[in-house]
Design a protein that fits this description.
Blueprint (H helix, E strand, L loop, with lengths): L1 E5 L6 E5 L2 E4 L1 E2 L6 E5 L7 E6 L4 E2 L15 E2 L22 E4 L1 H4 L5 H5 L2 H7 L3 E4 L27 H14 L3 E6 L11 H4 L3 E7 L2 E4 L6 H18 L4 E4 L13 H16 L4 E4 L21 E3 L1 H12 L7 H17 L6 E3 L4 E3 L13 E3 L4 H5 L13 H13 L3 E5 L19 H16 L14 H6 L12 H17 L11 E6 L4 E6 L2 E6 L5 E4 L6 E5 L11 E4 L3 E6 L2
Parallel strand pairs: 9-10, 9-20, 10-11, 11-14, 14-15, 15-16, 16-19, 19-20
Antiparallel strand pairs: 1-5, 2-3, 2-6, 4-5, 6-7, 6-8, 12-13, 17-18, 21-22, 22-23, 23-27, 24-26, 25-27
Helix pairs in contact: 6-7, 8-9, 11-14
């Protein structure tokens, strides 16, 4: 078997494979690369030593059986007997479900999560989005401090378990999206800087030195990241990737890294004859991100739309701290703006940033499905001091209103696991760092962060306490009892309507018409012949919407069919979906 590694600054590279040591040769065709052959089989442990130093794991390791600090293991991807005959499922018309493997079930494994996929099919989900799976220290964590970007966290089950999960999802008709982190590497178990210039001091990020996308040596770093992305899509048959915090990918080259990545992914889609897509997390509000390359954009297929979340969250909760301030001041008008234009900050002044931010979205060039709309995510829940969900803040009626707005809006909807039954469990920030100094720094840093906002230290959960993770696990007995069962039935009904009514998946943002009353606290919008209305006030309201005799498709509380005056009489904290026949 041939082994290879990029180590441009090394004078000598040695391969250790099982009990055999081989000195590698320089590759005459590729500068900085070393290669050699050794007998190896599935599971063989190996690593590389540079200049007679410590044996380190392979930067392109496909498996880390003993964690990020251990030796790598050989993986033969051709050995897995795929069962599903899968041709893919595109993003338009999709409904995503963000899932954290370590807390979706008490067992916290991919196999245990696979056993619960039937629930998502019954709900009406089309794609399950897995939070990061790359190896990280310890057993439990969010996954955003992973290393070995080609490997699967061993406590989750390793490479074979991910294949079993994807295979089962595809058998059930579910696509699989994977969250990947290219903007930084984890602080523990990261040996990439030993091998080459994977980081650069040319730019700095919240995590320190930036990933090297434009300094000397960046050609190979970019190839490393793109190779990892393609490996998930090819070797594990993943259907799409969610790209973490792309605004932290600093790249001054003429061809941006994201354009190069989207080109490579589109080429693989053509080669495999199945739809593949990239979804970015970005706070730039720059439509070029999701504009096609032929029209001068970077060619990503979609992005998370935090502006929709922020307008919805502030409207429902009244919170106005930090970056919520502008959205809270805008009220229902801000929510209406995002429903029709996508972005709230489209060149407007951002008081949080103390500058103007964003640019307008051209609705004739960017379809609505390219924006993901959601009311809860791992970030927006887990980055709160106590990890409290909307279900801890709102009444069932307002939760039903939120669900209605999310699942009928002109965006691709995304749910966070447990949201569909108003889970009573929190989702808190937890880590399992094995380095005592790092563990203590994370614990102190978390509490210091929230102490600045008035929280008592004892009220902020300790990320390193195993109980913090345990509290965050879903309680699968909840959906069987009230009030959770009723909420689950409402989500199922709304998702069934989304799949049945073509107007609800129409990608034309410009076709969405919105009306609202700030004082009386109601908002309604029309998409084709479908009308959606929510009353956020506690008292009944008569909404003058001009839809005489429209048919009620779904209602959280009993609602009469509008009469000849076309007014919709909606109970307090209730929602309705109507069809104007």
């Amino acid at each position: 078997m041939q082994f290879e590694v990029w180590a441009p600054q090394a004078r000598r590279v040695t391969l250790r494979c099982d009990d055999v040591t081989r000195v590698l040769e320089r590759d005459p065709e590729r500068a900085g690369w070393w290669w050699g052959e050794a007998d190896a089989r599935e599971g063989s442990r190996y690593g590389f030593a540079l200049d007679d130093g410590r044996v380190l794991p392979d930067p392109r390791s496909r498996r880390q059986p003993d964690g990020p600090d251990g030796l790598s293991a050989v993986v033969d991807h051709e050995r897995y007997p795929w069962r599903a005959q899968w041709r893919g499922r595109p993003l338009p018309g999709a409904v995503l479900y963000e899932l954290h493997v370590g807390t979706y079930t008490p067992e916290g494994t991919l196999d245990a999560a696979a056993e619960r996929l039937g629930h998502l099919v019954e709900l009406g989900i089309t794609h399950v989005q897995l939070m990061p799976l790359c190896p990280f220290p310890g057993t439990h964590g969010w996954g955003y401090e992973g290393v070995s970007l080609w490997a699967v966290h061993e406590p989750y089950g390793g490479p074979e378990a991910l294949k079993r999960f994807v295979d089962r999802a595809h058998e059930l008709g579910l696509g699989v999206v994977l969250d990947v982190v290219h903007n930084h590497f984890g602080p523990s178990g990261n040996y990439l800087p030993v091998f080459g210039p994977y980081l650069t001091d040319t730019h700095h990020t919240p995590w320190g030195a930036a990933v090297n996308l434009d300094a000397p040596g960046s050609d190979e770093v970019r190839a490393y990241l793109i190779g990892s992305a393609l490996a998930w899509l090819r070797d594990y048959r993943i259907d799409g990737l969610r790209l973490d915090a792309v605004h932290a990918l600093v790249d001054t080259r003429a061809c941006h890294f994201l354009e190069e990545l989207s080109t490579a992914v589109d080429a693989l889609a053509a080669e495999t004859d199945r739809p593949l897509f990239l979804v970015a997390e970005s706070d730039l509000n720059d439509p070029r991100l999701i504009t096609s390359r032929t029209e001068g954009g970077l060619g990503l297929h979609a992005q998370w739309n935090d502006d929709f979340h922020h307008t919805l969250h502030t409207t429902l909760t009244g919170e106005s701290q930090g970056y919520y301030a502008d959205f809270a001041r805008a009220g229902l008008g801000g929510l209406a703006k995002t429903l029709t234009g996508g972005y709230f900050h489209d060149g407007s002044y951002s008081s949080f940033r103390e500058r103007h931010h964003g640019r307008p979205l051209d609705r004739t060039r960017v379809a609505g499905h390219r924006l993901l709309g959601y009311g809860q995510t791992h970030d927006q829940i887990g980055n709160r001091a106590q990890g409290d969900r909307l279900s801890a803040l709102l009444s069932p009626g307002l939760l039903a209103c939120a669900a209605t707005l999310i699942l009928t809006a002109p965006f691709t909807p995304m749910l966070f696991m447990g949201e569909e039954w108003a889970a009573g469990t929190p989702w808190q920030f937890f880590t399992d760092h094995t380095d005592p100094e790092l563990a203590d720094a994370v614990r102190r840093g978390r509490r210091r962060e929230f102490a600045a906002h008035g929280w008592k230290e004892e009220d902020v959960p300790n990320p390193q306490d195993p109980a913090t993770r345990d509290r965050s696990c879903l309680d699968w007995s909840e959906p069987e009892r009230e009030p959770h069962a009723r909420m689950l039935a409402w989500y199922r009904q709304l998702l069934a309507l989304r799949h049945e009514q073509p107007d609800l998946t129409d990608p034309d943002l410009a076709d969405t018409k919105v009306a609202y009353d700030e004082e009386r606290r109601w908002i309604a919008f029309r998409r084709g012949d479908v009308l959606v209305a929510v009353n956020l006030a506690s008292e009944e309201a008569a909404l003058p919407l001009g839809v005489p005799h429209a048919r009620v498709l779904a209602a959280w509380e009993p609602v009469d069919r509008p009469g000849a005056d076309g007014a919709v009489r909606l109970p307090g904290e209730a929602a309705v979906v109507l069809l104007q026949e």
